[in-house]
């Protein structure tokens, strides 16, 4: 096993220090574009020690690819039931995205090459938004984008027949509802007006000239409606996209490193990276 060296440090961000963690392979693959990986957690939780961050990064780095994770700003938790309450916070959009972009631009500058940007759930939203921001404001298009069980639209799209068939009966228990997704996203941005901003939620936005995208979905997850819709939008925009549904899984399977779903998800990521994200 090519066990990576793990180093924690901070970067100077727009609002102060941004903690990052570097995963440096003992035997690096010099042809492999580095990966910036972003954890999920509904924009309210998670961090560098979270399995969805650390376990994923460790496994990818063991393949020889440099990986960086980022501890982006988190917003306060939100109510699922009752009247929505937005607690005061300076961490709402664009703070989390700014932290991700600080980590991304530093990684590109340090390596002198393109990077892959990817994440899970809310982190996938930040990855996609970050890729669009890089495309539009820095002319630095990533080498690829990885989106695992992503939330990419301000409102949960209607469930397509393929998703509806997978989440019937008891498999629907514990899945996301449109109400929950709207509350989560409103809590992230802080105002209803920003829900329609394609720089915040890229679903339905202008996606042309993005690099190849890998979308991974959990089989029993209503959020797959967002990935499914986004995959169609990418194809319509002429962006190469691969969409895989990991059988037998629920949302967050990359946060469960001992599960078959985690292993299947990592295998899919490594296979796609090997075919797509190499500058050698």
Automatic annotation (TrEMBL):
Record-annotated Alpha/beta hydrolase fold-3 domain positions: 35-254
InterPro entries: AB_hydrolase_3, AB_hydrolase_fold, GDXG_lipolytic_enzyme
Stretches of the chain forming a coiled coil according to its record: none
Molecular-function annotations in GO: hydrolase activity
Alphabetical keyword list: Hydrolase
Highest taxon of source: Bacteria
Hydrolase recorded as keyword: yes
Designated name of the protein: Alpha/beta hydrolase
């Amino acid at each position: 096993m090519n066990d990576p060296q793990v180093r924690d440090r901070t970067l100077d961000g727009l609002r102060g220090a941004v903690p990052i963690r570097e995963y440096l392979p003992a035997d690096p693959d010099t042809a492999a574009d580095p990966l910036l990986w972003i954890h999920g957690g509904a924009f309210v939780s998670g961090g560098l020690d979270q399995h969805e961050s650390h376990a994923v990064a460790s496994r990818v780095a063991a393949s020889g690819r440099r990986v960086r994770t980022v501890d982006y700003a988190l917003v306060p938790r939100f109510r699922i039931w009752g009247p929505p309450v937005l607690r005061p916070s300076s961490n709402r959009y664009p703070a989390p995205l700014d932290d991700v972009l600080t980590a991304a631009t530093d990684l590109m500058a340090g390596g002198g090459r393109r990077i892959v940007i990817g994440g899970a759930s809310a982190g996938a939203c930040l990855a996609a938004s970050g890729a669009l921001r890089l495309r539009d404001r820095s002319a630095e298009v990533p080498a690829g984008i990885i989106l695992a069980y992503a939330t990419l639209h301000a409102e949960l799209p209607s469930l397509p027949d393929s998703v509806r068939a997978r989440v019937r009966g008891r498999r629907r228990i514990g899945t996301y509802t449109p109400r929950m997704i709207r509350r989560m996203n409103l809590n992230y941005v802080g105002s209803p007006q920003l829900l329609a901003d394609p720089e915040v939620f890229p679903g339905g936005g202008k996606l042309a000239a993005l690099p190849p995208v890998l979308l991974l979905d959990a089989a029993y997850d209503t959020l797959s409606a967002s990935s499914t819709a986004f995959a169609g939008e990418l194809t319509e925009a002429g962006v190469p996209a691969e969409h895989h549904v990991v059988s037998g899984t629920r949302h967050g399977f990359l946060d469960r490193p001992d599960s078959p779903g985690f292993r299947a998800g990592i295998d899919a990521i490594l296979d796609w990276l090997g075919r797509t994200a190499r500058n050698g």
